[in-house]
Design brief:
The strands form two sheets. The protein has an eight-stranded parallel beta sheet. Helices cover 40% and strands 15% of the residues. GO terms for molecular function: 4 iron, 4 sulfur cluster binding; catalytic activity; metal ion binding. Keywords: 4Fe-4S, Antiviral defense, Endoplasmic reticulum, Immunity, Innate immunity, Iron, Iron-sulfur, Membrane, Metal-binding, S-adenosyl-L-methionine, Signal. InterPro entries: Aldolase_TIM (IPR013785), Elp3/MiaA/NifB-like_rSAM (IPR006638), RSAD2 (IPR026372), RSAD2/Viperin_antiviral (IPR051196), rSAM (IPR007197), rSAM_sf (IPR058240). Belongs to the radical SAM superfamily. RSAD2 family.
């Protein structure tokens, strides 16, 4: 009772979990315990102990692009009412949220970006989160959005898999014959003008694995260049009920490593192999359910709006150690980046 009077509930829970970990570690070192049992118990403890410090909220599945490897496809058109979304974000903040990343689908597609902008403003102004970020394909962003909401956004990541327009068309990273690269450079310039940290995400696949992007990335000069290995998720881009067939985009671990070595001179490069991606992200879907990707598919928890964060996160499959190992925790507030605007 004394502790709970002074400590926030998430912090008190963490102390209890650490105490249980110490007890179990002492017990298993003095008594012979089956290694499989140790692994199961540690997995359970890690799930209960997980803190949602960084969460990816995919509030819409709708998108104007048709990337062949997409692993969060347009299976529904559902979007939560904004007050429900805000309530969920408040629950996450109370449980230890520091960074929220809005994604999709294409997050600017709903309500022409106003829904997204209002959530960005709420998270920075009302919840006072240290970091608010967005992942977008960049095609639907307008300068007016930056004028209205740019001050509340820390990082904007634009997905770009190739600096060859034909390759982008082959991948599906395009809408008609519009230039994806023209949008990329335009958004980069707006980020500088309105003081938003600019980031690039690239999915390495069959069609771009041999490309040399060093000159282009150096010119764009993002704060981070996240490089993902193409990943299969059953029910999304693989299997009977999927809307995509991503098998033809897959590359080997060695091909991915070769790509990384070719670009090793790029200091902002952050690589993510399939193993790092699977269980090191806390992903909320459009219903605010955590998605467990450990088994190669997306198994949803109950919604945090129905059962709360502490219960739902136990079914997230989140590996906090892998999250830290892949560099998930970094300088993510633009106020701390000391960028030369």
């Amino acid at each position: 009772t004394i502790f709970t009077s002074f400590l926030p509930r998430p912090m008190f829970l963490q102390l209890c979990i650490r105490f249980l970990q110490c007890i179990f570690a002492t017990f298993s070192s003095t008594v012979k315990v089956n290694p499989a049992t140790i692994k199961v118990v540690n997995n359970v403890i890690s799930q209960v102990a997980a803190t949602p410090s960084s969460v990816n909220y995919h509030f819409t599945r709708q998108c104007n692009y048709k990337c062949g490897f997409c692993f969060h496809t347009a299976k529904t058109s559902f979007v939560l009412p904004i007050e429900d979304a805000k309530r969920g974000l408040q629950l996450l903040k109370e449980s230890g949220l520091e960074k929220i990343n809005f994604s999709g689908g294409e997050p600017f597609i709903h309500d022409r970006g106003d829904f997204l902008g209002k959530l960005v403003q709420y998270c920075k102004q009302d919840l006072q989160l240290p970091s608010v970020s967005i992942v977008s394909n960049g095609s639907m962003i307008r300068e007016k959005w930056f004028q209205t909401y740019g001050e509340y956004l820390d990082i904007l990541a634009i997905s770009c898999d190739s600096f060859d327009e034909d390759t982008n068309q082959t991948i599906g990273r395009a809408q008609g014959r519009k230039s994806h690269l023209d949008n990329l450079f335009k958004v980069r310039d707006w980020c500088r003008k309105y003081k938003v940290a600019f980031k690039i995400n690239s999915v390495i696949n069959t069609f771009n694995v041999d490309e040399d992007m060093r000159e282009n990335i150096t010119e764009l000069n993002p704060v981070r260049w996240k490089v993902f290995q193409c990943l299969l998720i059953d029910g999304e881009n693989a299997g009977e009920n999927s809307l995509r067939e991503a098998e033809r985009f897959l590359i080997s671990d060695q091909q991915f490593q070769d790509f990384l070595e070719r670009h090793s001179s790029i200091s902002c490069l952050v690589p993510e192999s399939n193993q790092k991606m699977r269980d090191s992200y806390l992903i909320l879907d459009e219903y605010m359910r955590f998605l467990d990707c450990r088994e190669g598919r997306k198994d949803p928890s109950k919604s945090i709006l129905d059962v709360g964060v502490e219960e739902a996160i136990q079914f997230s499959g989140f590996d906090e150690k892998m999250f830290l190992k892949r560099g998930g925790k970094y300088v993510w507030s633009k106020a701390d980046m000391r960028l030369d605007w």
